[in-house]
Specification:
203 residues; alpha/beta
């Protein structure tokens, strides 16, 4: 039976693993690929569809929201719904960010032929550069961690955190790259504590 101290140690272990992997991103992320992604998203005249399944889907929803918050119009697209007509949401001039840890997720691969036909730029987010997803992409953003937090090294914990951290960094870079202003943020985020600060002019 686990004691309270043992439970707490698991929490500390999880945070330490996460901190290590986030700190390692500065060495593991390809700088050129990161810059290319930033410039592609900044210059996109259409919208950005973000797709993922399972935990990658949860990360995709967060990424789409963050991009929209900095005036890069984005939406989460369910891969399952996509191949049943929802691909009509994606048009020429759009970008699709496809997230799959192993790069072989069937639901993700199923949308690629239609995206190619529609001439949609594909950014692949995966840890395997030789995967079907990576090979089908226009831009590969490889995000690979050494260890998940669980003892089986299977539960998508640290890997999901790393994907979100990379796109958080992209959003911050995009704010500078596009000249995104506090005034713009105030227009689209008038509610909540953040909205109150923006409207009142408080730091």
């Amino acid at each position: 039976m686990m004691t309270g101290e043992m439970i707490w140690k698991k929490a500390i272990h999880t945070w330490e693993i996460g901190a290590f992997e986030i700190g390692r991103l500065v060495r593991s992320i390809d700088q050129t690929a990161f810059e290319t992604c930033a410039r592609e998203i900044a210059s996109c005249t259409g919208r950005i569809a973000v797709l993922g399944v399972g935990t990658s889907g949860a990360a995709a929803k967060k990424i789409a929201h963050s991009l929209s918050c900095i005036e890069r119009p984005s939406f989460y697209l369910s891969p399952g719904d996509a191949v049943h007509g929802a691909l009509g949401l994606v048009q020429v001039g759009d970008i699709a960010i496809l997230i799959s840890k192993g790069g072989g997720t069937k639901e993700i691969l199923n949308v690629i032929p239609a995206l190619k036909t529609k001439k949609v730029r594909i950014i692949a987010v995966t840890e395997k550069e030789d995967s079907p997803l990576a090979k089908a992409s226009d831009i590969l953003l490889k995000i690979k961690i050494e260890k998940e937090a669980d003892e089986f090294n299977m539960l998508a914990t640290t890997s999901t955190m790393a994907v979100i951290a990379v796109f958080d960094a992209l959003c911050i870079a995009l704010m500078e790259l596009t000249g995104y202003s506090r005034e713009q943020f105030a227009i689209i985020h008038p509610s909540g504590a953040v909205g109150e600060r923006l409207v009142s002019g408080k730091e």
